[in-house]
From TrEMBL:
Residues 305-393 form the Erythromycin biosynthesis protein CIII-like C-terminal domain. GO terms for biological process: carbohydrate metabolic process; vancomycin biosynthetic process. It comes from Cellulomonas marina. GO terms for molecular function: hexosyltransferase activity; UDP-glycosyltransferase activity. Residues 249-270 have a biased composition (Basic and acidic residues). This is UDP:flavonoid glycosyltransferase YjiC, YdhE family. Signal peptide: none annotated.
C-alpha cells in the first residue's frame, strides 16, 4: 500500500497514524511525506522535497505578493512533489494507492500500474454536496442551500493551476506521457468526525465517513510542560503550522529582515491578546508558538505563562479550560476529542470552515477574524467559550468512541 500526503502537520499526522495502524496489521506500507515532517521510527518512509514553511504564504499578503509567492515558491515546490509522487509510487509498485487531494499525480501513477486508488479528504473539498459548502472556498462559513454544490468549483479551479506541473510529472510514467482520461477513485475516505460533519444525504456510497485518524501512542512530554498543566486552570493557545510570514525575496537581506521583524511584531500582538484575556478570566496560558504564529512579549513573562514551540495535544488539551487555535483540521479534531471548548481564529484554507462547524456544533465561540484579534475581542469570546464546557465534554465523549483507522482499513482491505 502506498500512502502519499503533502501539506503541514495536520495533513501529515493522519497519514502517519494510518501507516502505523496498517503496518501493525501485517500489511506492507510505504509513506511519502514532505521534507521535515515528523515521522516516528519503524515506518518505511520516502520524502518529497517540499518545505511547507516556504510554500505557505504570509497572512495578509497583498495580491501582488501572493502572485510572486506562487511563481517563486509554490510552483517549483509543487513541480518537485508531483514528479516525486509518480516516481516513488511506480518504483514501489503497490496494490493500492491512497493519497491526499494535494497529490494531483497519484491518479496517474495508479492508472499506470493498473491498481485502485483511494482519495483521502481531511475536509470536504472534492466531494460536492448540496448540504455543505466546500472547505477552503470563499463561502465556507455560510450555508447556501442548493448553491453549496457550486462552491466545490473553487478547489477544482485551484488544482487546475498546476496542470502544467502535472503534465511534466507524467514524464516519470512508464508510458512517458499523461493518459487521455483518468480512472475515477475506487473510494473516498473522509477522515472527518461525523460529530463535526454529519454525513450529507447526497454523498455517493463510495464515500466513507470514517472519523478522524489519530495515533494514540503516548508521547513524551517535557517535564516543564507537564508541571505547568498540572499546576491549575489554564488556557492553551496554538496557531499550529501558521507561518510567521514570508521572508522576502531570496537574496534581498534587508527585505528579509524587515519581513521577519513585522512577522515577530504580529506574533507578539496575537500572544498579547491571548495572555491578557486569559489573565482577565483567571487562567494561566500555555503558549505553543509553532512556526512563529505566536511569540511571547518580554513584558508579559511571568509564572502564569509558559511558551514552548510545541507539545503533544493528547497530553496538554484534556485538562485545559479552553483552547485558542487557528482551526486547522488536525487541531480542530484534537480539541473536539479532548472535550474542550474553543475560540477559533481562522487564517486561511479550510480553517474558516472548521471554525464555523465548531461554533454551529455549540462547542466554540463565534470565530474571531485574525485582523480583529486583540484582548478586546478575545475577552468576550473566552467568556462565551467557557460557558460551553458541558457541550464540549459531551462531544468529546462521542468523538473518542470513533475508530477512524479501523474503518479506513476495512475499506482498503475490501478493495
Amino acid at each position: 500500500m502506498m500512502l502519499l500526503t503533502a501539506g503541514t502537520r495536520g495533513d501529515v499526522e493522519p497519514f502517519v497514524a494510518l501507516a502505523r495502524y496498517v503496518a501493525s496489521r501485517a500489511h506492507e506500507v510505504r509513506l511519502a511525506v514532505p521534507t521535515g515532517a515528523d515521522v516516528p521510527d519503524g515506518l518505511d518512509v520516502v520524502r518529497f522535497d517540499l518545505d511547507a514553511r516556504r510554500v505557505l504564504p504570509a497572512p495578509g499578503a497583498t495580491p501582488w505578493a501572493l502572485a510572486r509567492h506562487l511563481r517563486d515558491e509554490v510552483r517549483p515546490a509543487m513541480a518537485g512533489m508531483l514528479s516525486a509522487a509518480v516516481r516513488e509510487t511506480v518504483a514501489f509498485a503497490p496494490d493500492v494507492v491512497v493519497h491526499h487531494a494535494l497529490v494531483l499525480t497519484a491518479p496517474l501513477a495508479a492508472d499506470a500500474l493498473g491498481v485502485p486508488r483511494v482519495l483521502v479528504e481531511l475536509a470536504p473539498v472534492a466531494t460536492p454536496s448540496a448540504e455543505l459548502p466546500a472547505a477552503g472556498g470563499p463561502t465556507a462559513t455560510r450555508e447556501l442551500g442548493r448553491w453549496n454544490r457550486a462552491t466545490y468549483a473553487v478547489p477544482r479551479a485551484a488544482a487546475r493551476v498546476f496542470d502544467a506541473e502535472v503534465a511534466r510529472a507524467a514524464a516519470q510514467l512508464p508510458t512517458g506521457s499523461r493518459p487521455a482520461r483518468r480512472t475515477p477513485s475506487r473510494a473516498t475516505l473522509m477522515a472527518v468526525s461525523p460529530q463535526l460533519v454529519p454525513r450529507p444525504r447526497d454523498w455517493p456510497a463510495r464515500v466513507h465517513l470514517t472519523g478522524h485518524w489519530h495515533d494514540d501512542t503516548p508521547a513524551d512530554v517535557d517535564p516543564a510542560v507537564a508541571a505547568f498543566v498540572a499546576g491549575g486552570r489554564h488556557l492553551v493557545a496554538s496557531f499550529g503550522s501558521m507561518a510567521a510570514g514570508a521572508a522576502g525575496r531570496r537574496g534581498e537581506q534587508r527585505a528579509r529582515d524587515r519581513a521577519r521583524d513585522r512577522a515577530r511584531d504580529r506574533a507578539e500582538h496575537r500572544a498579547r491578546g491571548v495572555i491578557t484575556a486569559a489573565r482577565a478570566h483567571g487562567l494561566r496560558t500555555l503558549l505553543l508558538t509553532g512556526w512563529g504564529g505566536l511569540a511571547l512579549p518580554d513584558d508579559l513573562r511571568g509564572p502564569d505563562v509558559l511558551a514552548v514551540p510545541a507539545a503533544p495535544f493528547g497530553s496538554v488539551l484534556p485538562g485545559a479550560a479552553l483552547v485558542v487555535h487557528h482551526g486547522g483540521a488536525g487541531t480542530t479534531h484534537a480539541v473536539a476529542r479532548a472535550g474542550v471548548p474553543s475560540v477559533v481564529v481562522p487564517v486561511t484554507a479550510d480553517q474558516p470552515f472548521w471554525a464555523a462547524r465548531l461554533h454551529r456544533r455549540g462547542i466554540a465561540a463565534a470565530p474571531v477574524p485574525l485582523r480583529r484579534l486583540s484582548a478586546a475581542t478575545l475577552l468576550p469570546a473566552v467568556a462565551d467559550a467557557l460557558g460551553r464546557r458541558e457541550a464540549a465534554a459531551e462531544v468529546g465523549r462521542l468523538v473518542r468512541q470513533e475508530d477512524g483507522l479501523a474503518a479506513a482499513l476495512d475499506v482498503l482491505t475490501a478493495l
